[in-house]
Design goal:
This protein is mainly alpha-helical and about 425 residues long. It has 19 helices and three strands. A hairpin with a 4-residue loop joins strand 1 and strand 2. The termini are far apart.
């Protein structure tokens, strides 16, 4: 800032008119002396006013500084000579003001403290700066309320309204934003929802609310319908438009996968699984159509990845469905996954650069979920699925031998229990 701004009748460093010297020192041997004026110091700082009002006060005031706050003391001393109406415009960085504010509090410089607070309240902060500002503000009490107002939690209704709006935007299928920014803004909304639903004490304020759940269910239904519609349209595409069509479908499937990760935090996983089961038949009718035999490999693999999440949720009891629905889920997806695994392995053997493969860990998780899911079904349904499995051309994947072994053991045990039960009934009858 130019010298013309410092327009007091006295100038800092004017030895001809000064009547007090401020000496700044630190342990590293740094020393700096400022020729100052007691009238200004008393007016701007209660610390200096107290020092200068003592009967044995000296014309020299020493202040011990640390290496980290030395420059902040220098800045504060200079600001003592800045007119009040120009003080706010004299600041040039958040980092500097944070340091000067702490020194101003120690020296009880109310005017500078207020100016620092006003500056910090109005300018952007970086994350590290915010943490430091909050620590300082909490020590200042009511004086720092303008700063804390920027970061204090809003009331529950306001939080809910923002969250619902974010969910609505994140699940939109045709937003008002220009195409150039639409996907980016939607992705940003999804990321912020993930963040707001992270492990945090404030989460129950929004996740347990009925209005939030209604909006989430509505968004899920909308995304499922949109995905189903996009997949159905693939049969109408020509090979020249396959690339853009797949991009559109993959984006809608990605949105659904995001919903899968979000809904458990709102206790709505069952809603996702139910919707996925409902659209599965329609989706597979399209992707298994002969017209798409050699196309949309990325989509076909991604379908298996999402279905794997559903199978795990149901197979390990995280989502409870009626036996009929569990049987339908398994009978719908087992043949498709079995066929695709063999086909993708064959393609990879022929083309070493073939990019569409099923990860080994994914295959194992699917296999484990299917075994668990089968063993939780009624025995007759287990038998139907095992017969179909053993009748297939390739038994290598999924390997359901564990489920078959358990089924055999249970069947034999059930037979034994039945025989023993009938024997006991017979003995009871004879004894009568």
């Amino acid at each position: 800032m130019g010298e013309h701004a410092w327009s007091y009748s006295f100038k800092l460093g004017d030895q001809s008119t000064c009547d007090v010297i401020i000496c700044l020192r630190n342990k590293e041997g740094r020393h700096e002396a400022f020729h100052a004026h007691s009238s200004i110091l008393k007016n701007k700082s209660k610390f200096f006013a107290n020092k200068l009002s003592q009967p044995n006060s000296s014309a020299q005031i020493e202040i011990q500084c640390t290496e980290s706050d030395y420059d902040h003391y220098v800045e504060l001393v200079k600001r003592l000579y800045c007119p009040r109406d120009l003080l706010l415009d004299s600041w040039d960085s958040v980092r500097s003001v944070i340091g000067v504010l702490q020194v101003a509090v120690l020296l009880n410089c109310e005017e500078i403290t207020e100016s620092c607070i006003q500056y910090l309240e109005a300018v952007p902060w970086e994350d590290k700066e915010e943490e430091e500002i909050v620590k300082i503000a909490l020590k200042l009490g009511p004086l720092a309320m303008p700063i804390l107002a920027r970061i204090e939690p809003v009331d529950v209704n306001a939080t809910k309204k923002v969250f619902i709006s974010a969910v609505r935007f994140a699940t939109s299928t045709a937003g008002p934003c220009p195409p150039l920014f639409g996907d980016e803004l939607k992705t940003s909304a999804q990321e912020q929802i993930d963040y707001m639903l992270g492990d945090d004490e404030g989460v129950p304020l929004i996740t347990g609310d009925d209005e939030v759940k209604v909006e989430a269910r509505s968004g899920l239904s909308k995304l499922c319908s949109y995905f189903k519609s996009n997949v159905s349209s693939l049969l109408l595409e020509s090979e020249t438009t396959y690339e853009s069509a797949e991009k559109r479908v993959m984006q809608s499937l990605s949105d659904l996968e995001w919903m899968f990760n979000v809904l458990p935090k709102m206790d709505l996983m069952k809603d996702f699984v139910g919707n996925w089961v409902d659209i599965s038949d329609n989706i597979l009718v399209v992707v298994e159509d002969k017209k798409l035999d050699s196309a949309f490999w990325g989509l076909k693999v991604k379908l298996i990845e999402v279905t794997a999440k559903v199978l795990e949720a149901v197979g390990y009891g995280n989502v409870i469905l009626p036996a009929q629905c569990r049987v339908h889920l398994l009978k719908t997806w087992l043949p498709y996954i079995r066929k695709m695994k063999a086909l993708l392995d064959s393609m990879a053997d022929k083309e070493t650069e073939f990019p569409y493969k099923l990860d080994e860990d994914l295959c194992q998780s699917i296999e484990g979920a299917m075994v668990s899911l089968i063993l939780a079904l009624p025995s007759s349904d287990q038998a139907d699925i095992l017969v179909d499995w053993m009748s297939a051309e390739q038994l290598r994947y999924p390997d359901l031998s564990e489920a078959f072994e358990v089924w055999c053991y249970r069947t034999k045990s059930a037979k034994r229990r039945l025989v023993e039960g009938l024997g006991n009934v017979g003995k009871t009858t004879l004894s009568l």
